[in-house]
Write a structure and sequence with these properties.
Two copies of one chain form a homodimer. The first copy, chain A, folds into two domains: 128 residues, Enolase-like, N-terminal domain (Enolase-like, domain 1), CATH 3.30.390.10; 224 residues, TIM Barrel (Alpha-Beta Barrel), CATH 3.20.20.120. In chain A, 39% of the residues lie in helices and 19% in strands. In chain A, helix 6 runs parallel beside helix 7. Chains A and B meet through helix 1, helix 2 and helix 9 of A and helix 1, helix 2 and helix 9 of B.
Chain lengths: 370, 370
């Protein structure tokens, strides 16, 4: 099962425009850029996967072509563990690729193996459950009314929980938003908060106390993932679980410290940013051994979300499957919708991914083959 | 001093070929790829700097053009601290650039400011010393004889110390190499070891003990920088200083834990991989407050090495200035040689960088303007 080719397409989906205010980086995205990788073996097998690309699909594609392609060609596609380790070494010596480069290629290796075994990926890994409750994650919205309305819509759509990405402009506004959402959905609907690092320690503590009063399920990334010392204190000060680590580079080694010394109460991982299926499984199993949850992080793009769902089906210490909302904004790249019915994601029965990529859409989105 | 333009060139220097065996990533580099950034202000000032690019200057250039250019345009070039913080936030939200992208642009901001003040960069930051002892760092060489011969040549060239990057194929071979080098240069020449993560904990401990017997100055990166738990134990087990952190993403927040809980005895930072002059100063000053050294890490490319030298001239808690050997392999990009005489690097007296970029060389090396 020798790797014969790694095809790389730089793509841009113009229909998925995200307003500048929806992400706190001050830049509008007219169109979403991504990469599509296809790994081909000498015996004619292939697997394809989307990859995150930041704002430059061309940049991500050129890097993968220069670094990952020569690294992979000629290797046995079944040697996933050796490839993961050898890439870690090679990357450290000269490449220093972004956190999102290796993951999709590792996903292709796992899909090839699952397809060869005739099993859906989650059962190839080792089935844990066939159904996973799903929650919707907001983008950054305009005001408390917008969040409250979206939370009600999410609940009406059958989703099992709603996670707020508040604007982070001020603690007072963020607290107002969390209160408005709780008031809108009532006490029995699960809510989480993910402010993405805007606060001082004191502000994070005050928001956490408010979320405890409001009955939120967890407080995610109130401080930078790297701020181990401050997070470790916050985790001890608050009863509400503090969650993080999705943007730490070099899972699982970097996360070991967080888990072993409980920098956070639950960690985050995903196949896009934290090293593919291999990296995510390492982090999830490491967390499990410490009785810590690994809450899978959205991979944004639905083909990657399918891999994420398979991981959720093979991991016990994860509460939910996460999807960005509105889901239609991100519903491209697959030949079907994500298999979510009434807020329950259903693991596929068919071999491999359990869905095909939408190659017409990909052809239309292709900027360059690199 | 509003930023009007960020010019970005993807470059490749074909004369600087590094054999595949010289870096432990299994890939020969025929030619060295890099990026040249030029930051221009509305009032006609400009500063330029090289940037690391892994194996793909095109990839690095496209990413910087898509992410850093729109972020910087229109900002006041004097607002370095705000730019550093705002970029940290923006990068976390969507960009996730490689560790090497932001540093060179931050260097340009500092050079603009130093030139406007009419001061050499090190004195603009705050002069600490005008002369810095310099050491040579090996690539990975063929065998013990090659290392011993290079160490003797380095000493003959007046350099003040020699750092071995051993092959890391086996502990026995690496120990043989360190012994051969010590025997070749005698007991009075300073030696360091930088194996770059090949070992088990036990092997690292055994090498450390041998280096203590051989009178080495420090043991660098014997284990992955992310392996905090293992490194913290190793640091306590060994008398010889254990050094690391040059490849941790997101200095200085990530390094705070290493310094505060002494994961390593001394940290590493540089303006290329750890956030420019701003990021390196943050890490160096943080380390200083804990009575920990910040040993500046080579930036490979000599224009960046000049910035590194200025930092060495503005930081007390750094023993040496580091350059890769053979120095001629990397002696391109400046209009003059690095100001090293008899192993002492001399800080320039002229404003800004104290050297000009070699634009003829850069023109010849330019693959694309992005």
């Amino acid at each position: 099962m020798k790797i014969a080719a790694l095809d790389i397409r730089a793509c841009r989906h113009d229909d998925a425009t995200i307003p500048g205010a929806a992400m706190r980086d001050g830049q509008a995205r007219e169109g979403l850029e991504f990469v599509v990788y296809t790994l081909r073996t000498e015996d004619g097998q292939s697997a394809s996967m989307f990859g995150f690309a930041g704002r430059s699909a061309l940049g991500a594609a050129h890097q993968a072509a220069a670094s990952l392609r020569p690294f992979l060609l000629g290797r046995d596609a079944r040697d996933r563990e050796a490839i993961w380790h050898d890439w870690r070494t090679a990357d450290r010596w000269w490449h220093h690729l972004p956190i999102y480069s290796f993951g999709p290629v590792d996903c292709c290796l796992w899909l090839l193996a699952a397809e060869a075994a005739g099993e859906p990926l989650w059962r190839f890994i080792g089935g844990a459950r066939a159904e996973v409750p799903t929650y919707a994650s907001s983008l950054v919205l305009a005001d408390a009314e917008a969040y409250a309305a979206e939370a009600v819509a999410v609940r009406a759509a059958g989703m099992k929980a709603y996670k707020i990405h508040p604007p982070g402009r001020s603690l007072a506004e963020d607290i107002e938003i969390h209160r408005a959402v709780r008031a809108a959905v009532g006490d029995d609907f699960a809510l989480m908060s993910d402010p993405v690092q805007p606060y001082t320690y004191d502000e994070a503590l005050r928001l956490g106390r408010e979320l405890e009063r409001l009955g939120f399920l967890w407080l995610e990334e109130p401080l930078p993932d790297e701020a181990f010392s401050a997070l470790r204190e916050l985790t001890r000060a608050l009863d509400i679980p503090v969650v993080g680590t999705e943007v730490l580079a070099k899972h699982p080694y970097s996360v070991a410290e967080c888990i072993a010394s409980r920098v956070v109460d639950a960690v985050r991982a995903d196949p896009s940013w934290t090293g593919g299926v291999t990296g995510t499984l390492k982090t999830a199993r490491l967390a499990e051994a410490f009785h810590v949850n690994c809450e899978l992080h959205t991979t944004i793009f639905h083909p990657l979300e399918m891999v994420n769902l398979h991981l959720a089906g093979a991991i016990r210490n994860c509460s939910y499957f996460e999807v960005l909302w509105p889901i239609d904004t991100f519903a491209f790249g697959l030949d079907r919708a994500l298999p979510i019915r009434d807020g329950i994601a259903h693991l596929p029965d068919t071999p491999g991914l359990g869905a095909r990529l939408d190659w017409d859409m990909i052809d239309n989105a292709t900027i360059a083959k690199v």
